[in-house]
Amino acid sequence: MPAHSPSLPPIAARPLQGRAPVAWWQNRWPWIILGMLGSTILACMITIVIAVKTQDSLVADDYTRHGKGINQRLEKDQEAQRRGITLLPTATRQPDGAVVFVLVYSAPESSPAPEFLRLHLAHPTIGAQDRSLALVQTAPGRYQAQATEIMAGYWHLSAEDPAGQWRVRSRLPIDP
After folding, report:
1. pLDDT tens string 116-150
2. Beta strand pairing call for 131-139 and 142-147
3. Contact, 167 vs 160, CB < 8 A?
4. pTM of the entire structure?
């Protein structure tokens, strides 16, 4: 039996034709791979710096105290429902950038309208933007307050009486 089959040509080593060997750093592919690895390491370092230097304002340090306070606040919401108190909030941005908040109070005769209301505006994600305002009664059942530097977007608001017996919550869009 012959050493190779007649249908297959023999494999012979061919010399490189006119190409001199080059060092690895003179090729582009090692640099592309190293660049991708380097950019990944740089992105990780930037992420670590951001994580260490910024605070998450949505996480409470003493969550058990906040949990107990939730029950007290829910009782205020239930008290407003029991009394039949409703508020219709609106927000209008003025040409100077200020935002005017108007709340229309409606309740049965047994729950007279207080002279003023406390309004708490809570930004959904940025705790530093939260505000508290006093709503002054401008007409029977109509309260108004003005605030500056309010970001556009949806805000959570809660209004309560001065004695803190009831509270009504709502969500309010503020236009740019």
Report:
1. 889 999 988 888 888 899 989 888 888 999 988 88
2. antiparallel
3. yes
4. 0.58
CB 91 within 8 A of CB 172: yes
Which string of b and e fits 69-86 if b means at least 16 CB within 10 Å?
eeeeeeebeeebeeeebe
Q: Is 122 left (phi over 0), alpha (psi -120 to 50) or beta?
A: beta
Length of the chain: 176
Q: Which DSSP string do the residues of 16-29 spell out, in sequence order? A: -SS-----GGGSSH
Q: Where are the domains of the chain?
A: 24-53, 85-174
CATH number assigned to the domain covering 85-174: 2.60.40.1930
The tokens describing 88, both together, are 């219709």
